[in-house]
Amino acid sequence: MATPYIVHDPAGAGVSAVVFDTPHSGVVLPDHFRFACARQDLMFLHDPHVEKLLEDVPSAGVPVLEALIHRTCIDLNRFDDEIDPGMIKGGWPHPPRRTFHVQQNLSLFPAFAGPRSRRIAAIYNESARLTTAEAERRIRDYHRPYFAALGTLLNRAQAAHGFRIHLDMHSFNRPAGSTIDDIILGNMDDTTCAPQLTSTVRDFFKAAGYSVGSNGVYFSGGSIIQTTGCPAQGGHSLQIEIARNLYMDQESLAFDPVKGQRVRDDLTRLAKTLDRYAATAGLSPKT
């Protein structure tokens, strides 16, 4: 069994109200993961190098939960029943959750990978088909432990402060000439965190020179912030999507250390800003 995650905890620091996680940056392909496409095709269906952008966040006193398992093996930003039964050899014996992501072939077990610039590659075929036992194994060994680890960090933050600020980190491919913003904030249409937290993060990025958008069909948030975001109980979760051409080459997938350093420094400053902001934010549950 591959290790599903690693927690980067600040050394010798008090408990911050802020927690980061990166569920799609993992690159580990477990030995039991059988796939039909080229290995390189799989690499285009994850959030490359987001973990590098967060490397200095623990030095700001803020923990980071980093997924290690590759998204094509199991998507940790999906509910554990967000499954297309037709993908499972012999069918799926449990009630499935048929969501927009399932309709787009981006369920708990994605069906296709490959770069957008050419034909999408099927991850599975008849000789490499996902079985019920294998699907249940991945849920048990990777999905549930990741959510449990995130829950532990969030509960610790809330126990110390009466609330928590959770940033769920992602990236997206932005074609040349696109008018899509640099940063897109997702909060399930203002339901997973207090509006003032979204405004604070938006203002931070704008002051740092980024263009900022919010929500939309593909960026409003997945199962993670839907599960953890409960503002009325003091749980504030915000998804942050970063355009990949700000820090990497989108064709070769190579990290750009010069461009990447700017984003890395800004995310570390964001962690420090929110850690200070938490002291006066008034994000505790209303009684």
**What is the CATH third-level topology name?**
Aminopeptidase
CATH architecture assignment name: 3-Layer(aba) Sandwich
By CATH's scheme, which homologous superfamily applies? Zn-dependent exopeptidases
Approximate helicity band: 25-40%
For the record, the CATH class is Alpha Beta
The count of DSSP E runs of length 2 or more, i.e. the number of strands, is 11
Strand proportion, as a percent range, falls in 15-25%
Q: List unreliable stretches of 5+ residues.
A: none
Largest sheet: 7 strands, mixed
Count the DSSP helices: 7
Cα Rg: 19 Å
Structural class: alpha/beta
Shape: globular
Return the string of H and E elements.
Answer: EEHHEEHEEEHEEHEHEH
3D structure, described in words:
The protein starts with a strand and ends in a 10-residue tail after the last helix. By secondary structure, the protein is of the alpha/beta class. The protein is built from seven helices and eleven strands. It has a single domain, classed as 3-Layer(aba) Sandwich (Aminopeptidase), CATH 3.40.630.40. The strands form three sheets. The chain has a seven-stranded mixed sheet with strand order 1-3-2-8-11-9-10, with helices on both faces. The protein is globular and about 55 Å long. 29% of the residues lie in helices and 16% in strands. A hairpin with a 7-residue loop joins strand 5 and strand 6.
Q: What keyword list fits this structure?
A:
287 residues; Aminopeptidase; single chain; alpha/beta; 7 helices; 29% helix; seven-stranded mixed beta sheet
